[in-house]
Design goal:
It is built from 16 helices and four strands. It is mainly alpha-helical. Among the domains are: 46 residues, no CATH class; 127 residues, no CATH class; 123 residues, no CATH class.
Length: 437
């Protein structure tokens, strides 16, 4: 059997023989193609480094094969605040905050923050201010290094709450992780560091639209008195030339949330002719929310307030059997009359919730009950007409039954009248008295 020249045993024997020959007489070692191939095959190849646990290739393959997951490597300490590391984690439509105060204000303008529960808003706002006061802030890269131990000891946040608040801020797009935290146990020995490394975050804000035209004329914020006799035909009372006040952040967030849900509406969220009857409290709340959202879709002024606000005002009417079309009718028409309001809520209404409550309040009686809705009136009229039709049919059937059961008399009427008259004369009754037939 001829040995394979490419086998491992043949290569080893060839290389060992060449080394011994070189030791005895170096001049006898000729660089022939066979000798060069044998020496090259004896050298360790790149594929064989997987057996070495200290080789980088072996470590990367071992990490990649660990349950199919690959954890990203932490940014080096010297480059964790560089522009390349920071901008590589910034999502589209965002940029590093220009100032830490602007970053705090951007959190208040978020729809998720404004529509959150009251206690959650207070906790998130306190946590954001605590993060802003942490050491390790770099204004050049707008990165910060919050330490969990400081947040726990100084501000009293539990570790689980800190994790939840960081996750929520990342989901809202106001924070991004540049470098993850790492304990000293997992720090590479080649770095020479034995201390723990805190996580590095970058403060984010939404990128502004550059196409917005801005005026350079300052807006006065104080009252302006007209000089005397400047305009004889006008009064010289103080006039406010300041711009109209901006709506609150919560109202703007509510409007964005409502518009987002209404723009994604592909079909009616609730039947406008159906009531919101439900068996359980959870189902009733959900049906009232969907009915209120559909009501906002059909009435443009109601889109200025939240769906929960509309549901709270319309809840007594929903539970009294009113439909969406009934509430739309009550908003535009006065009760028990054909009089329609001269204006709607699209213009000149500052508090939409109070306007809606006032319009629907006209349909509440003095005893606290509600007037019948238009659909309930139509249903009552339909039931009344059906009852009248049924009563008329019963009367006709009764009349037909009486006619069918009537038996005509056998004695002619002339003979009966003659007998009655004779009986009256026999009793000495006046002849002109009415005769009962």
């Amino acid at each position: 059997m001829v040995p394979d020249p490419g086998s491992a045993s043949t290569v080893v024997r060839t290389s060992v023989g060449l080394q011994k020959a070189a030791e005895r007489d170096p001049e006898k070692l000729h660089l022939t193609p066979e000798n060069v191939a044998a020496l090259g095959a004896a050298l360790p190849r790149a594929e064989d480094t997987t057996a070495d646990p200290d080789s980088p290739t072996g470590r990367s393959k071992r990490r990649a094969g660990r349950k199919g997951k690959h954890r990203p490597r932490r940014v080096r300490k010297a480059k964790e605040r560089s522009n390349r590391a920071v901008w590589s984690v910034i999502p589209a439509g965002h940029r590093p905050a220009r100032h830490i105060v602007r970053w705090l204000r951007s959190i208040q303008e978020l729809a998720e923050f404004q529509l959150a529960r009251k206690d959650l808003k207070a906790n998130i706002w306190r946590f954001a201010n605590a993060v802003a006061q942490c050491p390790g802030f770099d204004p050049a890269s707008m990165t910060i290094m919050p330490i969990w131990q400081r947040l726990q000891e100084r501000f009293g946040f539990p570790s689980k709450s800190i994790s939840n608040y960081f996750r929520r801020l990342r989901d809202w797009g106001v924070l991004a992780v540049v470098a993850t935290g790492r304990t000293a146990k997992f720090t590479p020995k080649s770095s020479g560091r034995t201390e723990n490394e805190a996580a590095i975050y970058v403060l984010l804000e939404k990128a502004e639209d550059q196409g917005v035209e801005k005026s350079s004329v300052p807006v006065p914020t104080r009252a302006v008195n007209n000089p005397p006799h400047a305009r004889a035909g006008e009064s010289s009372n103080p006039q406010m030339d300041a711009a109209s006040p901006q709506p609150s952040l919560k109202r703007a967030a509510q409007r964005r949330e409502v518009n987002h849900q209404l723009h994604n509406r592909t079909e009616p969220l609730w039947d406008p002719n159906a009531t919101t009857d439900a068996t359980t409290k959870r189902e009733r709340r959900e049906t009232e929310r969907l009915a209120s959202l559909e009501l906002q879709f059909r009435s443009f002024p109601l889109q200025r307030i939240s769906t929960a606000h509309v549901a709270a005002i319309c809840r007594p009417f929903f539970r009294a059997g009113w439909t969406i079309k009934d509430i739309l009718h009550a908003i535009d028409w006065r009760p028990n009359t054909d009089a329609k309001y001269h204006h709607d809520g699209a213009h000149g209404v500052g508090n939409t919730g109070a306007w809606l409550k006032f319009r629907l309040g006209k349909w509440v009686r003095h005893d606290g009950g509600l007037y019948r809705s238009p659909s309930q009136k139509r249903e009552a009229e339909r039931s009344q007409r059906a009852a009248e039709t049924r009563a008329a049919a019963e009367r006709r059937e009764r009349a037909l039954a009486e006619r069918s059961s009537y038996t005509p008399p056998t004695v002619p009427w002339r003979e009966r009248v003659t007998r009655i008259r004779q009986a009256q004369l026999a009793d000495k009754q006046p002849v002109g008295q009415a005769i009962s037939l």
